[in-house]
Amino acid sequence: MKELRQIRDAVIGALRDGGLEAEAAFPAKWADERKIPLATVAVGAMEGKHIGFCGYLGQRQEESGQVREVYGKRLEGVITVDIRAGRAAVCEGGGETASAVLLGGLPEGIRPGELSWEALTWEKETGLFLRRGKLRCEALFLAEAGEEGETFLDFILKGVMQHERNP
């Protein structure tokens, strides 16, 4: 699902902007190569909800004067963040950085809810300390009708991807 990948990539970008190394999956060689904390991000189960009447939000007028119809949808779910590091204090520091980003530094389209962290543990498989976190959140997506109104463009996470889209 494109929306889940957009959420995951937006959270990874926000964590990186906040000064924490972040990836979509734990790279096997990381433990040998780095001595800084690493966050791995995944999006768990999401549930969709309509915004507006059947997703219709209204119209938006472009600078060219063209009017486009705007649709929206909301997904509610859980983002998981695992922090790993070779030292307990470094892992804890990574968790503090991640907490600050997850509660106050995410893109406009991701609205944080409850954040919870499990106790710090030792992960035998990787030989690293691990701190697992879960953030309940909702993500808002917008889509517009194409230039002639007959084409419906993909839903884009609000406030994140503003590049040119092809109908």
Considering the chains and any ligands shown, give keywords for the structure.
22% helix; alpha+beta; 167 residues; 3 helices
Strand percent estimate: 35-45%
The secondary-structure element order is HEHEEEHEEEE
Number of strands: 8
**Mean pLDDT over all positions:** 81
Helical fraction: 10-25%
What does this entry look like structurally?
This protein has 167 residues and is of the alpha+beta class. It is built from 3 helices and 8 strands; from the N terminus they run H-E-H-E-E-E-H-E-E-E-E. Strands 1, 2, 3, 4, 5, 6, 7 and 8 form an 8-stranded mixed sheet that branches. It is elongated, with a radius of gyration of 19 Å. The two termini are 18 Å apart. The model is unreliable at 161-167 (pLDDT under 50).
Question: What would a concise description of this structure say?
Answer:
By secondary structure, the protein is an alpha+beta fold. 22% of the residues lie in helices and 43% in strands. The chain is built from 3 helices and 8 strands.
Strand and helix layout:
Layout: H1 2-17, E1 21-23, H2 30-33, E2 38-50, E3 56-61, E4 67-85, H3 88-104, E5 110-117, E6 121-123, E7 128-144, E8 156-157
Parallel strand pairs: 1-2
Antiparallel strand pairs: 2-4, 3-4, 4-7, 5-7, 6-7, 7-8
